[in-house]
Design a protein that fits this description.
alpha/beta, Rossmann fold, two-stranded antiparallel ribbon, 12 helices
């Protein structure tokens, strides 16, 4: 198999692009795809300070490196979820990457804030671990972006992540989520701008990039992700993609081309609680962060964990 760009030996075949690339040409392909996503949707401007949410996995670490190579000013942020060996290894990879490249890094611990791990949150709330984890990440990411003076928050969600999310939201017609099912969300008072520069690249492409660039990352999946519906959606979509290459891209970007027609009045509130209106001054009375209710979702989660764990002791 030869590279379609230079005829050298190819290391990866991309049926969706009807292409195959050698290491050097694939490297240029990845950088061009990220640059195109950033430019097309005005994700990051030259003077922006980007807070990169890094989990220790291939996507987020690769994104951090790509943004660095493209010349953007970045700071990494890692949230230690307290999930045993998984979190320890994840944190180690993030710290090693930052040290190796001389990049600034901020780390916070979920346990320090909630007095419990993701596992504790799941037990206390009797809800899937992914629910409490997602809520916590959104809170910490936004708070840290504001505290560090970052103008943009970037996450390592790739094409497969976004397509499976869209698929799930459409299956259940979650209008409140579909309206925000885009790789760029503008900044609002108290909310940072959020972008996903890897949206044009698949999981396979990011794994290949990390391998070729020799980026060490945590290999094991999160112990709580085994029953996640997103994995089922990805499996189904992979089967469709194998039979009809390019379907994922057409599905997601076709939706993005039409999203303003589907939701002409802008994004509806993210939850039913938000629909009741902002808190009196738009801030949580406990933590001071933006909130649609007098006490924000994260502070209410903290209270549920505190109460739930104390009852179990």
């Amino acid at each position: 198999m030869k590279c379609r760009a230079c005829t050298r030996k190819a290391v990866i075949k991309l049926p969706s692009h009807n292409s195959a690339f050698c290491p050097d040409c694939f490297d240029r392909f990845v950088l061009s795809q990220v640059g195109r996503a950033i430019e097309e949707r005005s994700m990051i401007a030259p003077g922006d300070h980007v807070l990169v949410a890094v989990s220790g996995g291939k996507d987020s670490l690769a994104l951090w490196e790509i943004l660095m190579r493209l010349g953007f000013r970045t700071t990494g942020f890692h949230l230690d979820l307290g999930i045993g060996d998984y979190s320890r290894e994840s944190r180690s990879h993030v710290e090693s990457f930052a040290s190796r490249h001389g990049l600034p890094l901020t780390i916070e611990s979920l346990r320090d804030e909630v007095d419990g791990s993701v596992s504790d949150i799941a037990r206390a709330t009797r809800r899937p671990a992914c629910s409490g984890c997602g809520l916590s990440k959104r809170y910490f990411f936004n708070r840290t972006a504001l505290r560090t003076g970052a103008t943009v928050l970037a996450t390592g969600h790739n094409l497969d992540d976004e397509v499976s999310r869209l698929f799930g939201n459409l299956l259940h017609w979650h209008d409140e989520y579909l309206a925000k099912n885009r790789p760029d969300l503008p900044s609002l008072e108290g909310l940072s701008k959020k972008v996903k520069p890897l949206v044009r690249l698949t999981e396979k492409e990011m794994a290949t990039y990390a391998f070729l660039r020799k980026i060490p990352y945590v290999l094991q999946e999160c112990p709580h992700s085994a029953d996640a519906k997103q994995l089922l959606y990805k499996k189904l979509l992979n089967e469709v993609e194998a039979a009809s290459p390019g379907t994922k891209h057409a599905f997601l970007f076709g939706f993005l081309d039409r999203i303003d027609r589907f939701y002409p009045e802008g994004s509806p509130p993210e939850t039913k609680e938000e629909a009741s209106g902002l808190a009196p001054d738009g801030r949580c009375e406990q933590c001071g962060e933006i909130s649609w209710t007098p006490v924000c979702s994260f502070c209410r989660l903290k209270e549920r964990v505190r109460t739930g764990l104390s009852e179990k002791r």
